[in-house]
Automatic annotation (TrEMBL):
Belongs to the LysR transcriptional regulatory family. Signal peptide: none annotated. It holds the Pfam family HTH_1. This is Cyn operon transcriptional activator. It comes from Kurthia zopfii. Gene3D superfamilies: 3.40.190.290, Winged helix-like DNA-binding domain superfamily/Winged helix DNA-binding domain. Residues 1-58 form the HTH lysR-type domain. The keyword Transcription regulation applies. It comes from the Bacteria. Keywords: DNA-binding, Transcription, Transcription regulation. GO terms for molecular function: DNA binding; DNA-binding transcription factor activity. One of its GO terms (cellular component) is cytosol.
Length: 295
């Protein structure tokens, strides 16, 4: 058994498909199948059930998958430690950041960070907060920005910024005359939500359920500007973080505070008990000193 076999096997488990895993790994499907089959032969057990449309783990496969992730993480950490020893002034950071956060903060953050550490390279994976959490947990990212909550038993949290969630409606909408809104006021409204890989998607549904109703979801998108345009055409209402709501077309859209307040709390997360590279430590130090309100 070698690390390459474990990497190939875990990718098939993630993708639930040999075809998709082969594409992600940049190898041919026959090569991938051969490597996984060899691993199964060495362990004398079936790891992947190939009888279904999706390639799913057997019970034995799940046990091997959980341990394989830890082994791969340990090997990655050895490489990180050696890279850190070679040159403490350079480094690479793989960050996850939801598009909403990226729009507001990433350009300013990078400008200031690169002034201090011009030789540190940052690779950005722009996905929803739920996917950022998953990728940080699995070791695919060094860290990432997410909307809370995040499981504190799994991650170390570095608070970044906090805003309120506001409602946006078309100026001709009957709610546009209101100075503030409670969630129960949205019971009969067509709601436009972010896709389910965004934590704010889950949070809005949770707040609706707390108010005693299930939201009438008219449309789901990962693009804030597309949702905003739907509101411009009076096709529904949406709940946005305050800074994103301010970017909507104010000639056609009214922004209204929501009470009780729904906080949009953003933190940077790293996985607990995982080696943190020198470059990532410098980024965390930078965040701790950073004023998110700076212009």
């Amino acid at each position: 058994m070698d690390v390459r076999q474990l990497i190939y096997f875990t990718e098939v488990a993630r993708q639930q498909s040999f075809t998709k895993a082969a594409k992600a790994l940049h190898v041919t499907q026959p090569t991938l199948s051969k490597v996984v089959k060899l691993l199964e032969t060495e362990l004398n057990t079936t790891l992947i059930d190939r009888s279904q449309r999706k390639s799913v783990l057997t019970d034995a496969g799940q046990v091997v998958y959980d341990r394989a992730l830890k082994i791969i993480q340990m090997v990655d950490e050895v490489h990180l430690v050696l890279e850190d020893l070679e040159d403490l002034k350079k480094g690479k950071i793989k960050l996850g950041m939801p598009p909403l956060i990226g729009i507001l903060f990433f350009p300013i953050l990078m400008k200031e960070f690169q002034k201090l550490y011009p030789e540190i390279t940052i690779t950005l994976d722009e996905v929803g907060a739920n996917l950022v959490k998953q990728k940080v947990y699995e070791g695919d990212l060094d860290g990432g920005f997410v909307m809370l909550p995040a499981h504190e038993e799994d991650y170390d949290l570095i608070p970044f910024t906090t805003e309120q969630v506001h409602l946006i409606v078309h100026k001709d909408h009957e709610l546009a005359a209101r100075e503030n809104i409670s969630m129960i006021d949205l019971k009969e409204e067509k709601m436009l939500l972010f896709s389910d890989d965004f934590t704010i998607h889950d949070r809005i549904i949770e707040e609706c359920e707390k108010a005693g109703f299930n939201p009438d979801i008219a449309f789901i998108s990962s693009q804030w500007d597309f949702i905003s345009q739907m509101v411009e055409h009076n096709l529904g209402v949406a709940l946005f973080p305050q800074s994103i709501a301010a970017k909507a077309n104010q000639e056609k859209i009214k922004t209204i505070p929501v009470y009780p307040v729904i906080p949009w709390e953003i933190s940077f997360i790293v996985k607990k008990e995982r080696y943190v590279s020198h470059a990532t430590k410098k980024f965390i130090e930078f965040l701790n000193a950073y004023d998110s309100k700076m212009e």
